[in-house]
Amino acid sequence: MTVNDIYLDYLFTCEDRFIFLFGGAGSGKSHAGMQKIMTRLESETNHRFLALRKLNNRVEESIFNKALTIIKNEIGSYNEYSTAKKPFKMIHEDGGEILMNG
C-alpha cells in the first residue's frame, strides 16, 4: 500500500479509539484513514467503523469510492464485501462494517 509518509508511522501502529487526520487538500487523509480501516476489517472480525466528512454531499466521491478503490486495487478482496449507497456502507463477509456519513 502507498501512504503519505507523514501518516505512515502513526496510522498503522496506532491503537487509539479515535483517529483525527489533518492536512491540506490532496495530502492523503482519506486514503490513509481508509487504508487503516480496510486493514482492520481484513484482519479482525465484527468491528463497526464510522467514517465521517464535514459535508455529506462529498461522501460518495471521497470515502466511499476511496474504500472501493483500496479493496479492488490494493487488497484484492472485492468479492468479500457488499455495499449500499443509502446509507453509504460496506459490509465484510466476516461481519465487520463501515458506515460513512457527513
| Unreliable parts | none
If helices are DSSP runs of H or I spanning 4 or more residues, what is the number of helices? 3
Beta-strand residue fraction: 15-25%
Distance between the termini: 26 Å
**Class by SSE composition:** alpha+beta
Helix content: 25-40%
Order of strands, main sheet, comes to 1-4-3-2
Shape: globular
Question: From N to C, what is the helix and strand string?
Answer: HHEHEEE
- Number of strand segments: 4
Q: Kindly provide the radius of gyration, computed on alpha-carbon positions and rounded to a whole number of angstroms.
A: 13 Å
Account of the 3D structure:
- The structure is a single chain.
- This protein is of the alpha+beta class and 102 residues long.
- 39% of the residues lie in helices and 20% in strands.
- The chain is built from three helices and four strands; from the N terminus they run ααβαβββ.
- Helix 1 packs parallel to helix 2 and helix 2 packs across helix 3.
- It is globular and about 30 Å long.
Q: What does the secondary structure layout of this molecule look like, with pairings?
A:
Elements: H1 5-13, H2 29-43, E1 48-52, H3 60-75, E2 81-85, E3 88-92, E4 97-101
Parallel strand pairs: 1-4
Antiparallel strand pairs: 2-3, 3-4
Helix pairs in contact: 1-2, 2-3
Keywords:
single chain; 102 residues; alpha+beta; four-stranded mixed beta sheet; 4 strands; 20% strand; globular
Could you write a compact summary of the structure shown?
By secondary structure, the chain is α+β, with helices and mostly antiparallel strands. It has helices spanning 5-13, 29-43, 60-75, and strands at 48-52, 81-85, 88-92, 97-101. It has a 4-stranded mixed β-sheet with strand order 1-4-3-2, with helices on one face.
